[in-house]
Amino acid sequence: MVHAIFDRAEKAQHALEEAFAESSRAVVFTGAGISTESGIPDFRSAGGIWSRMEPILFDDFLASEEARLEDWRRRFDMAERFAAARPNGAHEAVAHLARNGPVSLVVTQNIDGLHTRSGVPPEKLVELHGAGDHATCLECGTRHEISFAQDQIAKTGMSPRCTACGGLLKAAIISFGQPMPEDELERAMKESVMADLFVATGTSLVVYPAAALPMMAKEAGARLIICSREPTDQDDIADLVVRTPLAETFGPLKQMKFA
């Protein structure tokens, strides 16, 4: 049974400050809701990206040049959106808590790169669904910039190939049907069960296996806080549920002092 639900930002902020102040090892798990306040649309809600277009499956990307070119067109559009967006107060607060506070790991489902740009240390960030700011070769893993892929398509009209081995390039994002990165997921699971505080922020908690992380943390003894404007299926096991705007609620936490 959830212990408390906060629908006023000031009260929620104080509750979060208290929780982080009392924590010695915290995990913050974020989803699209932390970035919508930076102007980045989400994928799954009504009016979200998947309500306007069908996702391109990984197998289709591998099999079809037409699918690859359409996937790249969408990635270029997203890259422009991501570049234009700026981290909001919630991103900045999470970065502060990771640099100076008890947050041992930030786990995100987002591909927008805003956690990196807000200053979350690379060693404390796991991007479960990849990142949209670069591409990788599906054969050898060599990194290429998005601008390289864009130039190659403009010049040849064909999907870009790796400069090292000639393999297919793909934006470094996990597509539907593509295996999750095992090392990153394992690290997220390990930190979750070691945490004394787990804060799920801006996520609907419907995409598994990532959505199992809060339950794993709770079962291992962590205090669980869920910050989501909409109800989730895990609200009933949370110690605290926050329904307030994330940037407004988290923003003041970037002023927290830690010994």
UniProtKB/TrEMBL annotation:
Its EC number is 2.3.1.286. CDD domains: SIR2-fam. Pfam families: SIR2 (PF02146). SUPFAM superfamilies: DHS-like NAD/FAD-binding domain. The keyword Transferase applies. The lineage of its organism: Bacteria, Pseudomonadati, Pseudomonadota, Alphaproteobacteria, Hyphomicrobiales. Coiled coil: none annotated. Gene3D superfamilies: 2.20.28.200, TPP-binding domain (3.40.50.1220). Zn(2+) binds at C137, C140, C162, C165. InterPro entries: DHS-like_NAD/FAD-binding_dom (IPR029035), NAD-dep_sirtuin_deacylases (IPR050134), Sirtuin (IPR003000), Ssirtuin_cat_dom (IPR026590). The keyword Transferase applies. It comes from the Bacteria. GO terms for molecular function: histone deacetylase activity, NAD-dependent; metal ion binding; NAD+ binding. Transmembrane segments: none annotated. This is protein acetyllysine N-acetyltransferase. The active site is at H129. It comes from Acuticoccus sediminis. Residues 5-259 form the Deacetylase sirtuin-type domain. Keywords: Metal-binding, NAD, Transferase, Zinc.
